[in-house]
């Protein structure tokens, strides 16, 4: 993969792709989802043991009473363009980003 990326004015730039979100740290606030134009991540419910129950679609998702809390999950990593907007708004710094030149295609 190329290690040289450029902005419109010719400045060099290295995209930082979202690869993971730490479920133990994420508070499910949704800020990252709101700034992402590519729908890379979605809100998922988890139970008391930390097992992911599934995606929350905004309706009364209680997963038969098993829902403990919600977190963001990277479910479409290939859509990420590496802009870093999600990292800038995350209050918990729970995301892992990897430079484009370190990603194996």
UniProtKB/TrEMBL annotation:
Keywords: 4Fe-4S, Electron transport, Iron, Iron-sulfur, Metal-binding, Nitrogen fixation, Repeat, Transport. InterPro entries: 4Fe4S_Fe-S-bd (IPR017896), 4Fe4S_Fe_S_CS (IPR017900), FdIII_4_nif (IPR014283), Fe-S_Ferredoxin (IPR050572). Its cofactor is [4Fe-4S] cluster. Residues 17-46, 70-100 form the 4Fe-4S ferredoxin-type domain. The keyword Iron applies. SUPFAM superfamilies: alpha-helical ferredoxin. GO terms for molecular function: 4 iron, 4 sulfur cluster binding; metal ion binding. Ferredoxins are iron-sulfur proteins that transfer electrons in a wide variety of metabolic reactions. This is Ferredoxin III.
């Amino acid at each position: 993969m190329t290690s040289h990326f450029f902005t419109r004015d010719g400045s060099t730039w290295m995209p930082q792709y979202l690869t993971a979100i730490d479920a133990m740290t994420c508070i499910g606030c949704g800020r990252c989802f709101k700034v992402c134009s590519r729908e890379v991540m979605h809100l998922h419910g988890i139970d008391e043991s930390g097992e992911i129950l599934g995606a929350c679609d905004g309706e009364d998702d209680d997963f038969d009473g098993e829902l403990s809390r919600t977190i963001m999950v990277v479910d479409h990593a290939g859509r990420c363009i590496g802009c870093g907007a999600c990292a800038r708004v995350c209050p918990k710094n729970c995301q892992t980003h990897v430079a484009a030149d370190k990603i194996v295609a």
